[in-house]
């Protein structure tokens, strides 16, 4: 950044020509009030860019399912449409058309009962959370209409899920006043038990939500068994409790890797499905999809009809304005990769997850709590955490640049702590191998350190002396962090 004398507002400060000695960089930045005066654009860029360098590296953020790499051609398409507000459908009819095409393609991928050229019922959202709010609202309204028509009270709706649901379900329940009835987990069983779920269903249940790819360990819930049990219960009771599938991650995995697995609209009680375009849909953050089985499953009074395009454009979203880039990028990925491309990528992710899993097993130190069939991730916990625990491993791995979260499982498995590595498209074989090596190094370091409960040993495996102060500081960081994680409710949970 080179600032001219004039650009600096006529300052007599000679140092203004030197990037890092200019007065813009030397002064503390305003944090609470907007500054009175403008600064040059180069200075603004440099200051913000530099501060952002302290963020983690997204590519090494193994905590996230969300896409961190796309092809340059798609990046260009996204930048070219960054100034298009999606909601201006009369101005940008092609963008709207691309969204509709994405809805159709995804609905077909999920085996919606549609003719070849029939339009699907669905909507693009900011992510799975918004999609889940919309799906939940549709179930609530449909249930209320049914109860009113039967002359029954409709003020106590509930929804049945596993305790492993992502925070967005808790948000839905709280924001839209629906009781969340959670099936508890148990050690070794970290997904919703369909039998227990169906037992919890009553006349006020608006739907049972199953997860295709649990956030905690990537496992697919047994939607088929849930469907069969619920069909039976519906027949016995005369109710018609439906199913929603939260396929935030698994929706772009199962169709490619496990095409025989029945989890989608092939099952009659599955009325809606959400998927995150920005997870294994392979688009940067800001896109999700909600697809309904048919028009009957989306009460008409929730839909706003706009006819800017000369044709009816139904809209059902929580927000009005949003960017167009993600919609365009999703369309790019669908047509650029096609079924073949997605299958290749998911296959590769799965293989890399296996390399990582096998590497971790070879250490002999971990139990693997993820399944081979599921989202390509590896969730693992220490076989023996009496001396050191998963939080310390997570903390130590940060020194190598890796961000690997550690968290405790929900009730009744809260005594189990796991580490989780999400394998995304850009997590290569080299990364998988390298991560295993770094985890081994961390284990050696931890082995040489005193256990959390004993006094400090002052020798590192490499022979370096570790000062008591450093050790105390390290322990303090870990214990503060552990307390913070323990205190954290799902409202800030892993995502
Ligand atoms: C199973 C599940 N559902 C919903 C969500 C929320 O998704 P989004 O971030 O797209 O809102 C997540 C996020 O990780 C998830 O794993």
Description:
- The protein is an alpha/beta fold.
- It has three domains: 14-55, Irregular (MYOD Basic-Helix-Loop-Helix Domain, subunit B), CATH 4.10.280.50; 76-334, Aspartate Aminotransferase, domain 2; 346-492, Aspartate Aminotransferase, domain 1, CATH 3.90.1150.
- It contains 13 helices and 13 strands.
- It has helices at residues 23-26, 41-52, 72-80, 93-109, 128-149, 167-175, 194-200, 223-237, 254-257, 325-363, 390-397, 429-448, 468-487; strands at residues 121-125, 158-162, 179-183, 205-211, 243-246, 270-276, 288-292, 304-306, 313-315, 366-368, 377-382, 406-408, 417-422.
- Strands 1-7-6-5-4-2-3 form a seven-stranded mixed sheet, sandwiched between helices.
- Helix 5 packs across helix 6 (167-175).
- The longest helix is centred in the C-terminal third of the chain and has 39 residues, at 325-363.
- It is globular and about 70 Å long.
- It starts with 22 loop residues before the first helix and ends in an 8-residue tail after the last helix.
- Mean pLDDT is 89; it is low at 1-10 and 455-465.
- Pyridoxal-5'-phosphate (PLP) binds at residues 65, 127-129, 166, 168, 211, 215, 246, 248-249, 276, 288, 495.
Compute the CA-based radius of gyration.
26 Å
Placed side by side, the strands forming the largest sheet appear as 1-7-6-5-4-2-3
CATH 2nd-level architecture of the largest domain: 3-Layer(aba) Sandwich
Q: How many domains make up the coordinates?
A: 3
Number of helices: 13
Average pLDDT over all residues? 89
The gross shape turns out to be: globular
Present as ligands are: pyridoxal-5'-phosphate
Structural class: alpha/beta
Q: What would you give as the CATH superfamily of the largest domain?
A: Type I PLP-dependent aspartate aminotransferase-like (Major domain)
Element string (H = helix, E = strand): HHHHEHEHEHEHEHEEEEHEEHEEHH
Strand percentage, roughly?
Answer: 5-15%
CATH topology of the largest domain: Aspartate Aminotransferase, domain 2
- Poorly predicted runs are 1-10, 455-465
| CATH C-level name of the largest domain | Alpha Beta
Q: Fraction of residues in helices?
A: 25-40%
Organism: Hordeum vulgare subsp. vulgare (Domesticated barley)
GO biological process, one term: L-glutamate catabolic process
Family: Belongs to the group II decarboxylase family.
Cofactor: pyridoxal 5'-phosphate
């Amino acid at each position: 950044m080179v600032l001219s004398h004039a650009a600096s507002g006529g300052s007599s400060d000679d140092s203004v020509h030197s990037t890092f000695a200019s007065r813009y960089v030397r002064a503390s930045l305003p944090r609470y009030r907007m500054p009175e005066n403008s600064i040059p654009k180069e200075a603004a860029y440099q200051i913000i860019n530099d501060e952002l360098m302290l963020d983690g590296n997204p590519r090494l953020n193994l905590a996230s399912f969300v896409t961190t790499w796309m092809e340059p051609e798609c990046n260009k398409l996204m930048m070219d449409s960054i100034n298009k507000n999606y909601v201006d459908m009369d101005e940008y009819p092609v963008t709207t058309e691309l969204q509709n095409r994405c809805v159709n393609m995804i609905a077909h991928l999920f085996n919606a009962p549609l003719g070849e050229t029939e339009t699907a019922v669905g909507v693009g959202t900011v992510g799975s959370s918004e999609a889940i709010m919309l799906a939940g609202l549709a179930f609530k309204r449909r249930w209320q209409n049914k109860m009113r028509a039967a002359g029954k009270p409709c003020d106590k709706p509930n929804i049945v899920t596993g305790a492993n649901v992502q925070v967005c379900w808790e948000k839905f329940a709280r924001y839209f006043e629906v009781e969340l009835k959670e099936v508890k987990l148990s050690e070794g069983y970290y997904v919703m038990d369909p039998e227990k779920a169906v037992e919890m269903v009553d006349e006020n249940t608006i739907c049972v939500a199953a997860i295709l790819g649990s956030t905690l360990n990537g496992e697919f819930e047994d939607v088929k068994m849930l469907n069969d049990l619920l069909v039976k219960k519906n027949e016995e009771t005369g109710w018609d409790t439906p199913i929603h599938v939260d396929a935030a991650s698994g929706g772009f995995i199962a169709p490619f890797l496990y095409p025989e697995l029945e989890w989608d609209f092939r099952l009659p009680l599955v009325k809606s499905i959400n998927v995150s375009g920005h997870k294994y849909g392979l688009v940067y953050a800001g896109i999700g999809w909600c697809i309904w089985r048919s028009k009957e499953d989306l009460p008409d009074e929730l839909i706003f009809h706009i006819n800017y395009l000369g044709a009816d454009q139904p809209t059902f979203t929580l927000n009005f304005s949003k960017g167009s880039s993600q919609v365009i990028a999703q369309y790019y990925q669908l047509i650029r990769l096609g079924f073949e491309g997605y299958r290749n990528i998911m296959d590769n992710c799965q293989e890399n997850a296996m390399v990582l899993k096998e590497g971790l097993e070879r250490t002999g130190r971990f139990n693997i709590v993820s399944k081979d069939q599921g989202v390509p991730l590896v969730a693992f916990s220490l076989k023996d955490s009496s001396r050191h625990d998963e939080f310390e491993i997570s903390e130590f791995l940060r020194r190598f640049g890796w961000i690997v979260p550690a968290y405790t499982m929900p009730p009744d498995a809260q005594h189990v702590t796991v580490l989780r590595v999400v394998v995304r498209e850009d997590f290569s074989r080299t990364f998988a191998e390298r991560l295993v090596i770094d985890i081994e190094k961390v284990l050696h370091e931890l082995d040489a350190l005193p256990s959390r409960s004993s006094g400090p040993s002052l020798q590192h495996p490499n022979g370096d002396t570790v000062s008591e102060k450093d050790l105390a500081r390290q322990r303090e960081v870990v214990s503060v962090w552990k307390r913070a994680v323990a205190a954290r409710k799902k409202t800030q949970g892993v995502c």
